Amino acid sequence: MRSTRGWAADGSGVLRRTLLERRDLRPDDIAVRIDYCGVCHSDLHALREHGGESTPLLVPGHEFTGVVTEVGREAERFAVGDAVAVGNIVDACLRCDMCEAGQENFCREFPTLTYGGADRRDGTVTLGAFAREYVLREDFAHRLPEGLDPAAAAPLLCAGITVWEPLRALGVGPGTRVAVVGLGGLGHLAVKLAVALGARTTVVSRSADKAADVRRLGADELLVSGDSGTMGAARGRFDVVLDTVAIAHDLGPYLDLLALDGTLAQLGHLGTVSIETTDLLIGRKRLTSAGSGGMPQTAQLLEFCAEHDVVADIEILPSSRVEESLERLARGDVRYRFVLDLSDLDVATP
């Protein structure tokens, strides 16, 4: 085993700096020095649900960039010194129909998550990227294209791919009318990517206080969801609605925005939803969802972002301020993604 420093929660759910163990490299593994890791709502939810004396150690973090420091004897895709990016899955069966279709995120045997998952070979619980090193199967790392800022690129590996997959699956491009509901970590990247794809893009937000950001991000207009007149006037205007709101809410007003055969992709809240069937029936509308992405689509996203200069709007904090980032994220005090700089873990003092 090899050791690295990181931030872990025991049964209390509070993150503390500690020494973590990583496996020795298998033949097809690489070791990555983690430089930057985004802070996702999933991390917040995992910590809130974590607890109990028998609960395994939890190390969050599943969107990160860094540099390869060692390669296994059979690893061929990367060399020491390569800049890489890793998302929220680090292994899959690679045999099922989903894996063969390049959708390892939908692996029939369930993919191995970057943290809180079960290693496919020894069953140990995976520990995430709020740490200075990660060891993973090389097939699940991506080459970070030149020109992408490694800190601002880190959120592309979760937030970015989560919105990219439905944009591509729904054929968004020039002439497509897209509405993005919510302007947070997911939403602002959805806007940037939709605009870069050539879509006419609108933001739907609870208030008008982000109007300047809407223009800066390249969107065409802002709809205030609490303004019934404005929302009513927009009824039936959009081909695609990407709903990035992270809490349970009524989908009806957003289904109303869809044109004939339009699609609502519900991306932010992954819990139970309730809808009136007639909200789908009238206009032959569709409701779908997405989460993470397969390896080919993620690689495509990174290349597209490098070509079109798309990265996340971030606030970088040293990893010692991880609790602050989580507290502020919980109250929505970030525009639009926190990224932890893990270099402070090099200092030996606790």
From TrEMBL:
Top enzyme category: oxidoreductase
Cofactor(s) this protein cannot do without: Zn(2+)
InterPro entries, A to Z: ADH-like_C, ADH-like_N, ADH_Zn_CS, CAD-like, ER, GroES-like_sf, NAD(P)-bd_dom_sf
Catalyses which reaction(s): a primary alcohol + NADP(+) = an aldehyde + NADPH + H(+)
Its EC number(s): 1.1.1.2
GO molecular function term, any single one: oxidoreductase activity
Protein name, as recorded: alcohol dehydrogenase (NADP(+))
The species this protein was found in: Brachybacterium fresconis
